[in-house]
Amino acid sequence: MVVVNRSPGGSGREVDPVLITEAAPSYEDEHAARKRKYMLMMGMRFPCLILAGVFYHTWWLALLFIVLSIPLPWIAVLVANDRPPRKAEQVSRYEREARAIERGEHRIIEG
């Protein structure tokens, strides 16, 4: 999204939008993504076992598919329970100019 400065006396130039929150993706979105990863990894286990049965004449290939299918549930649970890392990104933040509240000099009037 690009914001164009259309204020009176503005230059009409494009300005990056200002981020006013550091909100993470919603819990529902994050949970749905983790469920998809879990289902994909658990779905890979069944074809590995089927392929091990298909290649039972080649014992080393069948053993390879069985060995690949053993850690898949453990890995799937670890991936599904892990939150994604926070992204380090450069964002446009609202920064106000530092202005003096009072003038720097004070006069003392003696009466």
From TrEMBL:
This is DUF3099 domain-containing protein. The lineage of its organism: Bacteria, Bacillati, Actinomycetota, Actinomycetes, Pseudonocardiales.
